[in-house]
Specification:
This protein has helices spanning about 35-45, 45-65, 65-75, 100-110, 115-120, 125-135, 145-160, 165-170, 170-175, 300-335, 350-380, 385-415, 430-435, 445-460, 460-470, 475-490, 495-500, 500-520; strands spanning about 10-15, 20-25, 80-85, 90-95, 185-190, 205, 215-225, 230-240, 250-255, 265-270, 280-295, 340, 345. The chain is of the alpha+beta class and about 525 residues long. It binds decanoyl-CoA.
């Protein structure tokens, strides 16, 4: 990795026959040096909550540029290895993980990245506190943030749909601060038939009434399963004989390994060779009678698992802004040390203007994300009004899709700030860019989420609530939103769908402007 906490050198080149070394960019405690984070938290939180959480955020900000940076570099260097067989031909299916990865998972438990949301020590502000923790943790986590997202989503699904046994057992593991008892969870939705169109799921659940605890057995192939090293997973399958389409699907819970650590009727077909997120073990799995329990009764599986993926979509947004923040921090730091045309990059008006314009895009994403995190906290603590619940439903796909796009564009610009060095692997910027691409794919692509926003408009009647929230807005953005929404009023569904992506991005822009105005007033 070409950056560290304190400055150093990272590249040799020659100028005018004289050898010289470029100076590496450096990172500092983000909590200390992030005025947007500090100001936003100060405005969002009651003074006593703000005072209480500061020492922890400072501590986490420090870990993110010291130990966690080192451990994530280790996890990126030593990517997961699949060992399918033992030397004597027996099926083993071990996934070997780096020490750095294991330490990061343990640290996530200790710092309460998931637990903080469920302890609800700060009431409706607990999700804001958690968002700040995750924002600081993610960029130095080698994507341990991904299993954490699914862990949190699984905890929420169990909270809403789980029986007493799941609440007493799995839920406690998922929300534990003790690394020894902390469990991460997988979320297995994607199949060969598609990642977006989940209704095509072909995994079958067969009844196994002889086993009271595990009264179903699963058969099928799960094509992408992130975090395959997790002890448990939530997944969709179709009970034998159930109707087709998404209504016939049910939500299941499984624990992957037996007491001896052997997989329970699961074969790991292979680890995926991905564009980025290389430290994260993403596998293709064959389920060969995997024991499972039904969660929340039969049917309506997509509806039930949406309680999980609406959480992972918020995580995706928080991690996307954390990721973009890291790219910007490195770009600024490099601009302060790199000289060209006789002065530092930062002293070139055009260069500075470029970075400042990226900061503006970043700030919009940041405000939108923390606003949604607060809405989520209010919803979970029962303090949200009906309108706020509708706003949360409508803005979850909006924040997810818009932060992903902003993150990708900021990371691309940040690579360019480094010039040729940005294109070189060991500098670390290339990896940031590759990883950024995942945010627009995980948990629903831009278009799928734009259509989910339309679903919120039609099923939850979110349009009037949104327009009420934006009632003070004037200008081109809100005018265009009104024009597109008029297609819905006229029942022009095809035209509405054709413009859904444009609409979603405009809504993100309008809400961010609204939040900025509210902060300023
Ligand atoms: C660092 C951050 C890490 C983040 C985690 C990374 C993990 C990555 C792993 C993955 O990427 S897993 C794969 C993720 N896959 C997706 O997110 C699926 C994307 N596709 C969709 O979201 C589709 O829109 C969807 C599968 C939901 C379409 O399903 P259907 O069944 O064809 O849609 P339908 O019939 O409209 O909805 C069924 C029910 O669910 C309806 O309720 P009712 O039964 O009451 O009518 C919908 O209202 C409800 N529903 C759908 N989406 C919802 C929702 N309810 C609430 N919120 C939503 N978002």
């Amino acid at each position: 990795m070409g950056y560290q906490k304190v400055g150093g050198t990272f590249c040799t080149c020659y100028a005018g026959g004289m050898e010289f070394y470029q100076v590496a960019p450096s990172l500092s405690n983000r909590f200390e040096s992030d005025p947007l984070l500090r100001d936003s938290l100060q405005k969002l939180l009651p003074p006593e909550v703000w005072a209480k959480i500061q020492p922890h955020l400072r501590h986490v900000g420090e870990l993110a540029v010291t130990d966690w940076l080192e451990w994530s570099a280790d996890a990126e260097r030593n990517i997961p290895q699949h060992v399918p067989f033992d030397p004597w031909g027996r099926r083993l299916d071990e996934i070997r993980m780096a020490e750095g990865w294991k330490k990061l998972e343990a640290a996530a438990a200790t710092e309460g990245i998931v637990a903080s949301a469920y302890e609800r020590q700060h009431g409706e502000f607990s999700r804001v506190y958690q968002a700040a923790l995750l924002y600081l943790f993610h960029p130095s986590s080698a994507f341990v943030s991904c299993p954490l997202a699914m862990t949190d989503g699984a905890a929420r699904a169990i909270e809403l749909y789980g029986d007493e046994e799941l609440r007493q057992n799995a839920f406690r593991h998922l929300t534990s601060r003790d690394p020894k008892s902390f469990w991460t969870s997988g979320q297995w939705m994607t199949e060969r038939t598609g990642g977006s169109d989940v209704s095509e799921t072909s995994t079958i659940a067969k009844p196994a009434p002889q086993d009271k605890n595990w009264s179903w057995q699963l058969h099928g192939v799960k094509w992408f399963t992130s975090a395959t090293t997790s002890p448990m997973a939530m997944l969709l399958a179709r009970p034998e004989g159930a109707v087709g389409g998404s209504r016939g699907l049910s939500l299941y819970y499984t624990e992957l390994r037996d007491q001896e650590g052997r997989l329970k009727n699961i074969e790991i077909l292979r680890l995926k060779d991905k564009l980025g997120t290389k430290a994260l073990p993403t596998a293709e799995l064959q389920l060969t009678g995997t024991p499972a329990r039904l969660v929340g009764g039969e049917g309506n599986g997509v509806k039930k698992i949406s309680s999980l993926f609406n959480i992972t979509r918020v995580y995706n947004s928080i991690c996307a802004i954390g990721h973009a923040r890291r790219a910007l921090d490195l770009a600024w730091s490099y601009s302060w040390v790199r000289k060209a045309f006789g002065k530092k990059l930062v002293d070139h008006p055009l260069h500075r203007e470029t970075l400042e314009s990226l900061e503006k895009d970043f700030a919009k994403s940041f405000r939108l994300t923390f606003f949604v995190a607060h809405l989520l906290g209010r919803d979970e603590c029962g303090t949200a009004s009906d309108s706020e619940r509708t706003l949360l439903r409508a803005l979850t796909p909006i924040v997810k899709l818009s932060t992903a796009r902003t993150c990708m564009s900021i990371c691309s610009e940040a690579v360019e700030v480094f010039g040729g060095a940005g294109y070189i692997e060991d500098v670390g910027m290339a990896r940031l860019l590759r990883d950024a691409q995942v945010f627009s794919i995980w948990e629903g692509t831009t278009n799928v989420l734009a259509l989910d926003f339309l679903r919120a408009l039609s099923k939850e009647n979110a349009g009037p609530v949104l327009m009420e929230f934006l009632k003070d807005q004037s200008g081109a953005v809100i005018d265009e939103i009104r024009l597109i929404l008029a297609h819905a009023l006229r029942g022009e569904q095809d035209e509405l769908e054709r413009k859904a992506r444009r609409l979603a991005l405009l809504v993100a822009e309008a809400v961010a402007m609204q939040l900025e105005n509210q902060e300023g007033s």
